[in-house]
Amino acid sequence: MEPAPATVEQITTRLAEVRQRIDAARSPDQEVSIVAVTKTFGPELIEHAVAAGLTVLGENYAQELVAKAETLTQRSPDVAEQIRWHFIGGLQSNKIKMMGDLVTVWQTVDRRSLAKELAKRRPGASLLIQVNTTDEAQKSGCAPADVGALVDDARGRGLDVRGLMTIGPTDGSDPRPAFDALRHLGSEHGLPELSMGMSGDYEIAVRQGATMVRIGSALFGPRDRR
DSSP string covering 27-87, please? Predict the structure, then answer.
């Protein structure tokens, strides 16, 4: 039996705690937005999240995002209309057409072929450049040295490059060097939006300059990993 989804009240309480922790970590002039990661959670949980005030949602898989969007449009059209989807998983060119106009921000553009396909399918789309700031072979993301060329290419195709995104180290090591690297790259290339930090390290990310954090389990509890 699948665990019951977190209630509106539970999410509201957890959201207040997350925001309090963000406020304690950020500088006075630093604005930090929350992308609520709904990966593996069902439509009922999403309805509860929206009721709690979370309308910017992150999904990792194209098929899952499309299925949830279609289900919500049928069962809760008022909820579906409020949602702004961010795609935060590994992106493939053939998935861009599938997600169509559902995605508001594409956070994981890391190569020219993706920028080319986005410009073809979604002219003027908003995106973040994903950077592999930990040099882990299993991770997506362009090399830090390639950021400038990729930004220029995407902008040359008419795309709206808002900033950069990274994932902290997966081995449990100190994430600050990775987050520092992204902040410096953002400053170097004039990209103010920095998406970095998840449930386990978002406070550190905020202290290092994050303007956007991607939070799942801290809001919704553990995932059913089956």
Answer: -TT---EEEEE-TT--HHHHHHHHHTT--EEEES-HHHHHHHHHHHHHH-HHHHHH-EEEE
pLDDT value for 114: 97
Residue 46 CA to residue 8 CA, distance in Å, equals: 10
Check: CB of residue 167 under 8 Å from CB of residue 136.
no
**pLDDT at res. 136:** 83
pLDDT at residue 172 in the model: 84
Q: Which residues of the chain have a pLDDT value below 70?
A: 1-2, 224-226
Burial grade of 2 (CB within 10 A; 0-12, 13-18, 19 or more): exposed
Q: What is the set of domains in the chain, with CATH numbers?
A: 8-220 (3.20.20.10)
* CA–CA distance, 154 with 124 (Å, rounded to integer): 10
Write out the two tokens for 208: 């290092």
At residue 138, the pLDDT reads: 83
Q: How many Cβ atoms sit within 10 Å of the Cβ of residue 14? A: 18
Rounded-to-integer distance, Cα 75 and Cα 135, Å = 43
- Residue type at position 44: E
